[in-house]
Amino acid sequence: MDEFLGAALGFPAVIFGAALVVVVCFWLLVLAGAAGHDSFDADLDTGPAGLGGVPVSVSVSVSLLVVLSWFGSLTGTVLLRRSETGGTTRAVLAVAVLAGSLLLAWAAVHLLLHRFRRYFPAEPPPSRLDFVGSVCTIRTGSVTATFGQAEVVSYDGSTAIVQVRTAGPFPAASRLSGPAVEEAPLVMGGSGLLYAYDEDGEFFWVSPYDAALDPGPSTRPHELPGGATG
């Protein structure tokens, strides 16, 4: 027991021991509901360190790194104390134990996350093109060829305000909304269909929409009037 305490309080294990105390206190706060396990996700990015790519919080990755580093440094410190080295050589070896423990811990966590990464394929980043085919609500007094805004709901339930433009009557749109709806003005509170996106102007083309005349789920959400696709 004395040997364990001496090694735990000696250099370099004491450095990772202090970090381990912080990690334990943090997870106790998480268990008590005083903190969230993803509290540091917005502040730290583990991607550059090779510890990203799987849906685990930064806190989990760092905690594993600290625990493994502490265990490695503790083992190295015990072996170093049992050796016959002393003076400068022992100090150099202690620094080597410090660096080696951190490197081995990083390699172990990286390998562990790499094993799990194959089960979590990377998802494409959100794109404005995801809104093409969505129904929006007009938020300006009217929509013209040069001005207009609308509110659209994304697949995750969040809302966004997007720039919209109208090109006037849409002859091909009668298959979706009918002639009566085709002439309906796009005014505040009305519904519109985002049928294309202009990347140069960074706005959506919108046409009038009536849910009562929606042909149903057989229509592909990204199919544009006239047979083109977005």
Report a brief summary of the structure.
With about 230 residues, the protein is of the alpha+beta class.
Please work out how many helical segments DSSP would assign: 5
Counting helices, strands and paired strands, the structural category is: alpha+beta
What is the ordering of alpha helices and beta strands? HHHHEEEHEE
Q: What is the radius of gyration computed over CA atoms, rounded to a whole number of angstroms?
A: 30 Å
What is the oligomeric state here?
single chain
Unreliable stretches? 170-183, 218-230
Proportion of helical residues: 40-55%
Largest sheet: 5 strands, mixed, barrel
Number of beta strands: 5
> In one word, what is the shape?
rod-shaped
Strand order of the largest sheet: 1-2-3-5-4
End-to-end C-alpha gap: 69 Å
Q: Mean pLDDT, as a whole number?
A: 75
Beta-strand percentage range: 5-15%
Describe the 3D structure:
This protein is of the alpha+beta class. It is about 40% helix and about 15% strand. It has five helices and five strands; from the N terminus they run H-H-H-H-E-E-E-H-E-E. It has helices at about 1-10, 15-30, 60-80, 85-115, 175-180, and strands at about 135-140, 150-155, 160-165, 190-200, 205-210. Strands 1-2-3-5-4 form a five-stranded mixed barrel. Helix 2 packs antiparallel against helix 3. The N and C termini lie far apart (about 70 Å). Residues about 170-185 and about 220-230 have low confidence and may be disordered.
